[in-house]
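Open question from group meeting: does this chain pack into something compact, or does most of it stay loose? Before anyone orders reagents, we agreed to write out a predicted structure and look at it together. Recording both the input and the output here so the notebook holds the full record.
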Amino acid sequence: MPADPRRPAVIVAATPTPNGDLHLGHLAGPYLAADVYARHLRSTGRPVVYTTCTDDSQSYVLATARRQGVPPQHLAATSTAAIARSLDALGISTGGLPPIGDTYRRTVVDFVSALHAAGRLRRRRVRLPYARNAGVHLYDGLLSGTCPTCLSESSGGACEACGHPNTFDELLDVRYSLDPDDPVEPREVEILVLPTEGYRDRLTEYYARHTPGWRPHARQLIAELLAGPLSDIPVTVPGTWGIPAPFPETPGQILYPWIEAMPASIYSTWWSRSRSTAAADEVDAHWRAATDTELVYFHGYDNVYHWGLVDLVMLMAHGDRYVLPSANVCNEFYELAGAKFSTSRNHLVRGHEVLADVPRDLLRFYLALTAPEYQRTTFDRAALPSIVQNRLVDPWNRLSRALDGVLDAAGVPDRLPASAEGRRRATTIADRFRTWYELPAFSLGQLADTLGTQVGRLAAEAESLAGTAGVGDLVVQVRALIAGAAPLLIDTAAIAHGDGWGGPDPAAAPETVAALRLPPLAGVGARRDRRLPVS
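Structure tokens returned:
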């Protein structure tokens, strides 16, 4: 059933860690998918906020900065600027990255302080790994070892391979990431936690309603987590990089970075939508349950535990104050030469490197076509030109040339009649695109495949036209094609709409259509059309 066209939507892509620029593994995952979904909803008239913000408090920022010999504040600032440029270069329509300043920190502190005041947090004496020579407690990016669930190499917090948490002293073969030779031992420390088991009944009910629409791998992980005891969520940890914990029970500790994700998303929603009109004490207005907002997360499999369980408990702990996510759209890893992209190993390709000679629409198409939705897929720079040329550019330009040829013929009126059959086919095109735009079936890969299939079919139809008969039926279908492709081929759609292909409802199938020409696509290596927008 189509969503209420008046219902507001908040779309959140996983918050990027500012310990370096984004690479194509990041961009091909949550950021492009969320952008396409947001653009589709906007095209239907829905009020949409698509947002994210950097998670500056992550220990990975501190670890990377120390490896590079730079202050972590400097690394976070330069990385945030690079991330913003990368998102803009690929046309990711978040409207910018919000500053991590006083309002951000106040939003986070207010969010957790409300839980403390309501008695939701508990003191726990836990064992944390401790680097003896460095004199620091280890968590997340400061820690490496072996996952106790799948025996893969893992950082602290959660395992990238199997997705299971390894909180506190559960990681095996532990090492200090910055100095593997520094002896590591468990030491007891008292922290504040949010006990997850108390939310089991509510979690079970939520998952019963929502996970049937999740992708299978994420759904399986949730089932595995529910089958055992649920780990307490650390709220504070002993550390120096992050937001100081505001609680008298934990002097000198910081807030655990992962519990910032929900107040961070609340803050970035406010910043993106109404920072010029809403007071700072109303930052969470767009997340309150009374708004009936459709909240959708886009993230990678390695974040299912955090975005699919930890963050859900963080919202539930506030009672009925906040909306809960309607969907979690999870992608797998995008690989390069058979291994996942890795900033630390410099095994990566940056978006700007490919965009130097690949038009943005073609890169978006290729990333969508090869998106790692249900399993790992591979970015192949050598194969990209031939794939986009054969699947999109050549048939698109054949269609453009054939349409030009027909319209150049004498006697073509300014408006062309479309038969009932032509309008039916246009509606079918719109319906096929809509199938893959809407949840839970949303799929970048199927969208790109549908686009390639319809372009090829319409090119053949255009080349078979004799005279001007049937031109209206062709044009009404091309109109539906452009509307369906618009959230993906953003630059081409902008040109087409400027040339008259848009309108109040470009996906509709009217009885007469304007005799318009289809803008051609530039191939790999071509310079951008000067008419293209910056983002």
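Observations to bring back to the group:
The radius of gyration is 25 Å.
The CA atoms of residues 321 and 371 lie 36 Å apart.
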